[in-house]
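I'd like us to work through together how a protein chain folds, taking it slowly. To get us started, please write out a protein record for me. Go ahead whenever you are ready, and we will take it from there:
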Amino acid sequence: MSDQEALINLDEIGGGVQKYDDDIFKEVVTSGGYLARLQLMTSQSNKCKSGDFPINHYALVRDGNHIDAGKEVDVLIISWRPKAIQITDETVIAVFDHTTDQFKNIVEQSEVKDSGCLYGPEFLVWVPSQKTYALFFMGSKSSRRESPNVKALLGKAGTLEPKFVDTKKYQWYTPAIKPCSTPFETPDTEDLKEQVEKFNNPPVSEVEVAEESGNNSAEDRAR
């Protein structure tokens, strides 16, 4: 938030009290064609390495902005779809049709070190603390192993948390989930139907501008 001195007195011109609240502001900012990405930010993330973001906290990422959702975050698990992505320096190619050669090629290339290829289930979730929908992609080996536990909570509430994995060769954190017993407000039914319809009918593939993928580092892909 800027500490710059105001140049006009909003109270004097009747603008001191906002006509619209912050929820409406968030709605018009985030009502575009795509949703924020929910991801675990590990020590491998450049944001965490620089000290700009807490290690092992979940982030809501949109347009390069990272909102801290906490070390644990309650979510409503709504739906899932297959997804494969290929990350380059400039773009991210996302493929949703698992029957295509392009999808199968990314799956095959994901076994190659530093290929930039990932695949796995992507979940549509509702994040009540932020009053927003988000996409939660589980594309690394370690997160794919946890994904059945997320899928088991479809239609239910879960709490995402970081999980420490310790092997003889490596130690790292990966996303994990547990049932959530805390009541929270669910989204509007009509809006929910619209979001599910969009989520379940993606294009065969799409191209996005590349940005840091957080927990999908090359080191994590090997796990």
